[in-house]
Amino acid sequence: MNKKLLNLKDMHKQNYDKFGKIENISFINELAIGFSKKNKKIPSRFHYDLNGSKYFEKITKLKEYYVTRTEKKILKQLSQEMKNIFDDDSAFIEFGSGSADKIS
Predict the structure, then answer these.
(1) Closest by alpha carbon to 27, among 5, 48, 54, 53?
(2) pLDDT value, residue 21
(3) Pairing of strands 15-16, 22-23
(4) pLDDT tens digit sequence for 16-49
(5) String of b and e for 68-87 (b: at least 16 CB within 10 Å)?
(6) DSSP label of 7
(7) pLDDT tens-digit profile of 77-102?
(8) Which positions ≥6 away from 57 have C-beta within 8 Å?
(9) Which residues contact 104 (CB under 8 A, 6 or more apart)?
């Protein structure tokens, strides 16, 4: 691997967002950093084009991926209480929900 890709000093001026995270790290550098780790990974923000969204939906259905199943269970358990809190004109919004399967 080209070591220069991992040299953050050579990157263009870094900007910090309101949470103090570095913005504007190039796509190639982010991939190089993820692939250089012992447990290889691709930053999740690159998963969410049309193909990535379809891939993630498949992941959420795996037995090993408990998060979506657990969220659905919690929402089902709290649904009556939520109906009592919110009126009929309220909207339930889940940011980054993908297919919105949990709230539909």
Answers:
(1) 5
(2) 58
(3) antiparallel
(4) 455 555 555 677 788 888 888 899 888 877 766 7
(5) beebeeeeeeeeeeeeeeee
(6) -
(7) 998 898 888 888 887 777 666 666 76
(8) 98, 99
(9) none
Two tokens, residue 13: 């001026």
Can you give the pTM of this predicted structure? 0.46
How open is the CA angle 25-29-31, to the nearest 5 degrees? 115
What b/e string do you get for 30-53 counting C-beta neighbours within 10 Å, with b at 16 or more? ebbeeeeeeeeeeeeeeeeeeeee
CA 53 vs CA 1, 8, 28, 33, 68: distances in Å: 29, 30, 21, 22, 14
Per-residue pLDDT tens digits for 49-78: 777 778 888 888 899 988 888 888 998 999
